[in-house]
Task: inverse folding
């Protein structure tokens, strides 16, 4: 889809527990809703290029999860279930009884948990750069890399980590902004949220997902391989896989126009 005039509506939503989340909306306020959940350690901004091309008939909501971006950084609550609870609470606050959910990487595990625990709340689901489970070598590599991160994450660390997740070059200004956004999370949030992710294993719950699911994966993903996609496909009751050639872990950064088109095709009624 061609680029649309982008009018973003920023607001802060306070959840019942008091945590404040930075949210961004665009599109038709009465259109089919879709909530986009970012990866680790990103923010809503990681969806900005996709939003620029997304069909304006959708009511699109992107937000920064607790601890990230301009959302509040509470001292605890970084287990995966808490992130999923935040997503449900955000939907409640926005009046979304049933919605489409789209998650990238870490965010894909969050939306899966919501779809497993609250199938009645999820219409369709898109998982970008996901896997059936986190591989042990990746878990240990990242755990070691972030063990001594200071509260103010160094620019060179954030830049190197982000660069290691992409295969195709991205617009330099977009990449610089991504790095700046990722550095808004303190080092301890990196660690606590990483442990919350890797200590969760939902493989025995994937069969509980009733939402039709689209998997988007780049064939040059350095984090999750094709075998993980095939196992995820086999575990989900109603899923299909779209493979992007010559693309890394972040199709939403590397091929935003293609991702936006695939989202529109999958989420909008025909």
Result:
């Amino acid at each position: 889809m061609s680029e649309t005039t982008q009018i973003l509506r920023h607001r802060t939503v306070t959840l019942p527990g008091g945590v404040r989340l930075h949210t961004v909306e665009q599109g038709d306020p009465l259109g089919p809703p879709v909530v986009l959940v970012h990866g680790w350690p990103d923010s809503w901004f990681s969806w900005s290029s996709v939003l620029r091309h997304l069909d304006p008939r959708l009511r699109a909501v992107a937000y920064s999860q607790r601890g990230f971006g301009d959302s509040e950084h509470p001292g605890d609550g970084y287990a995966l279930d808490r992130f999923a609870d935040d997503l449900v609470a955000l939907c409640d606050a926005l009046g979304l009884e049933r919605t489409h959910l789209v998650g990238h990487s870490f965010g894909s595990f969050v939306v899966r948990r919501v779809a497993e625990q609250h199938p009645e709340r999820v219409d369709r689901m898109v998982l970008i750069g996901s896997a059936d489970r986190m591989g042990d070598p990746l878990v240990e590599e990242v755990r070691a890399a972030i063990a001594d991160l200071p509260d103010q994450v160094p620019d060179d660390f954030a830049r190197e980590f982000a660069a290691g997740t992409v295969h195709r070059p991205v617009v330099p200004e977009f990449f610089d902004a991504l790095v700046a956004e990722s550095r808004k999370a303190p080092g301890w949030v990196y660690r606590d949220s990483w442990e919350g992710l890797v200590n969760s294993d939902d493989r025995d719950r994937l069969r509980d997902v009733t939402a039709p699911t689209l998997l988007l994966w780049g064939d040059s993903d350095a984090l999750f391989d094709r075998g993980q996609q095939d196992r995820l496909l086999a575990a989900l009751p109603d899923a299909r896989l779209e493979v992007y050639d010559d693309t890394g872990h972040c199709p939403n950064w590397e091929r935003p126009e293609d991702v936006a088109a695939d989202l529109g095709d999958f989420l909008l009624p025909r």
Remarks:
- The first helix runs from residue 48 to 53.
